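Entry 14. Ran structure prediction on the chain below.
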Amino acid sequence: AGPISNNISGPQLDRNADYNDIIGMLRYADKIKNENIGQKIEFPRLAFFCTLIKRKVFDKIGGLDERYSPGNYEDDDFCMRAQLAGFKSHILKYVFIHHYRSRSFAGDGNEAYKQRLETNQKKFIEKWGASPEEIWLQGKGIIPPELFIPYKSS
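Output, structure tokens:
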């Protein structure tokens, strides 16, 4: 399960989020909770900036695929494997989380971030045979890989 947010891609984006400070954000989040209580949307992909995942999902499909390290497309890959293993994901319309977006990568600059996106999209397409948009939004078939990704041992 994942929240809606002010700064995210796809259907998790809340285009109505409008506030100027932390108090305004807290008021907005409370308004969303009260207006949308219990509402959720089933969608095959969640952005992993803030996600709740049941332990049984990890037990069945393993962890994140580290070929996407340090980030981008690892969440798409995990969601694809979870979906193929019979799990569903939901966007909780009553949970709003502010997202600063990509602060983990901001120090590398926009060009490096763009390059990482392109590189990892290619890795995703190599693995699955299509991009996430082609698979989930256009119904393109996939190349089914191994679903289980073992945890990296330390």
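Strands lie at 2-5, 40-42, 90-97. Will compare against last week's run tomorrow.
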